[in-house]
User: Fold this.
Amino acid sequence: MTAPADRPNDRLTALLDELAAEFPRFRVVAKPNARTQRVIHHLLAIATLGVNRAYLDGYHTTIGRTIYVTGDWDSMSRDRRYLVLLHERIHLRQFRRYTMLGMILLYLLLPLPLGLAYFRARFEREAYAETIRGAAALYGAEHVRAPGFRANIFDQFLGPSYGWMWPFRGSLDRWYERILAQLGPPEV
Assistant:
């Protein structure tokens, strides 16, 4: 079967088709166009004392069966969009597994909403592991072994983006090394 002329036959199209099959009511919505997302943006800025002002244009967010994407989504490379959707597919599955109420309680509140958010960190480790594996498949294992790539991911856990969700860098190092070990030995 061939892809319609207006739909490239590539990994992004295949992933979108997989998502539609796995989550029939799945949709992608631009965050700036969603009132709820603008409200969340302002609430996060308040909760983080103004430190996190990037929610609307710096992060993609899954709630239920909807993936809210940044306003520059259509101008992103297809590979970048593919990596985002790999990550967000994990969150779609988490919402299906834990339900909306379960995710709200676990992701946002337990044990603490800021500073030590065990479940948020656990859910994000699962999704970022998929990001790491996907980036390794696209760009090679050395790409995800680079200090800058690791630092960017660690910043999500240690910084204000997710409310300083996990302050234990040592456990992040061990987690990251386990993922790298799954990719095989480094090239020499």
Summary: The chain has two domains: 1-109, 112-188.
